[in-house]
# Entry
Amino acid sequence: MHFRSDLAALTAAALAVIITAGNYFITEDVVVEEDVYVATQRATMAGRIEGDLVIASGPVFISGEVTGDLIALSNQTIIVTGTIGGSIRAVATGTVDIVGTVGGDVAVAAPRVEVSGDVGRDVLVFATDARVDGTVGRDLRGQALNVTLDGTIGGNMDMAVQALRLEASAEVGENVVYRSNSEAVISGGAVVEGTVRKLPARFTFFARVWLTVATLVSFLAFLFGGIASFYLLRRTAPRAASALVLRPIASMVAGFAFFFVVPTLVVSLFITLVGIPVAVMLLLVFLLALVLGPVPALAAAGDRLLRGRSGLIGSFLFAAVLWRTLLWLVPFAGLFFYVLALVWGTGAWVIGAWEVRRRAVDVPPRSPRPEVPAVPIAPADWEAPLPPLEETQAGAPVAEAVPAAAGEGAEPPEDGGHGDDPSQP
# Structure
């Protein structure tokens, strides 16, 4: 399937353009005046998008202009030779190559990252091999196995690396701080306005990479589990989020009670031996609460921040990203907010589940249908009507004898069997 968009088709949407195609292609003469969301097998954008471009694709080639942000997910390569007015956030399984101009920040994760264009603000890199030949307006941060700098960094360079190399054309406006177990290789022509400082690596590079991957996977699993809970517990989850807003103190008390009572019951039941099956079930519920306990709290907080405009799932995703960012930026304060969301949200789950159970018990059973008495087809004393009269040869009507009407054993007529024949005396 080949998809070619034109101006009339792309500007018809009121808020955004959502496209699903086998091949997404925008020519140089096309202007899109809204945000574009694309899911495709291959994407080539040579025109102009006056908004954001969010794309999930195979290879991605951007040679045109995006006035907003570029958010890209690719299972191959991402090559940007055009202009991005906002920021780039990209993840790829191949190479991310930024040759063009970026007005904002760049945050990328890929096996290989190359920045040979101009970036107005910061660059954050997670890669196996990273090379910067262009210009970065402010700081270069991140971690990579091998980092080569042959361009210009306006601010600081702070990297966790296995091997760092500054080529002869490298320029750093402030300090170079690198965390590694090996010394950096700095060529004679490299210019560092500040100081070059080496810090001991807290972990080996591979340990840091696996720790980062594990953290990312656990967060994605938390998001997936939260979304799944809204679908699987579609009656309990909304009540839990409402309980946290309408009954905050009760939710907090229920949360503390849950984390105090359930472990005590588990230990007691294991000691009795007879209650081991119930103890195992309670233990599974306890572990599930440790994972999904914060979900109602985050949904309620996101709903308050977004003023109820994105639904519970959208509010949950929004608040979860802010929550995880807070845990990452401020570890000690983040621990407090984690425990708060865990206890508060678990208590809301308890109240929501109790309300669902109570409503199920209070609903009266349906009354059986009233029995309709059978209506007899005919009354008990009903008799069949007499058959129609027949005419004799003389034209006089004569009734056929109906023994059933007279009943069995009926008396013969008094006239000796002549009936009503007027010719007989």
Notes: The longest strand covers residues 106-115.
